[in-house]
Design brief:
binds heme C; mainly alpha
Length: 129
């Protein structure tokens, strides 16, 4: 076997490994995100498909949703007037510092300072639909 074809086969294998590893990495992020959710959000939020509300509204399907759309949850006027669409960026900003994104809102949560934790959390939330 020539040196060259050996290298091209190695390169193919490496590419294949990278392609296979990508979804696994996303899964690992979401799994870590589930832990972040349990530690920080689950006291007040459910992600069950039943749209079960706790102290906060259900976060099932929250990614991409307009703010304040869960029936039967009593939102603050500030949140209802916010006009926010919960894109990943907006959720990220909100869980960093809720009061900065919705002044006068009623989510009593100090925020998550760690960027990596928030990223894992967003991966997890994106899958709850
Ligand atoms: C102490 C309870 C509490 C904790 C902890 C909490 N939340 Fe909330 N959350 C609320 C309440 C209450 C609201 C409604 C806020 C309002 O109406 O101003 C809310 C609203 C939200 C909304 C807007 C939903 C909608 O339908 O518009 C998102 C998104 C959200 N929370 C995400 C999170 C995430 C993610 C975490 C964890 C990092 C978290 N919250 C932690 C109580 C909490």
């Amino acid at each position: 076997m020539s040196h060259r074809s050996h290298w091209s086969r190695t390169r193919t294998m490496l590419t294949l490994a990278a392609v296979l590893a990508a979804p696994l990495a996303a899964l690992a992020d979401a799994e870590r995100g589930a832990d972040v959710f349990d530690e920080n959000c689950a006291e007040c939020h459910s992600v069950a498909s039943s749209l079960k509300n706790k102290k906060g509204p259900s976060l099932f399907g929250v990614a991409g949703r307009n703010a304040g759309k869960i029936d039967g949850f009593h939102y603050s006027d500030a949140l209802l007037a916010s006009g926010i669409v919960w894109t990943p960026d907006r959720i990220d900003a909100y869980v960093t510092q809720p009061k900065a994104v919705i002044p006068g809102g009623k989510m009593k949560f100090d925020g998550i300072a760690d960027t990596a934790e928030r990223k894992d959390l967003l991966d997890f939330l994106a899958e709850q639909k």
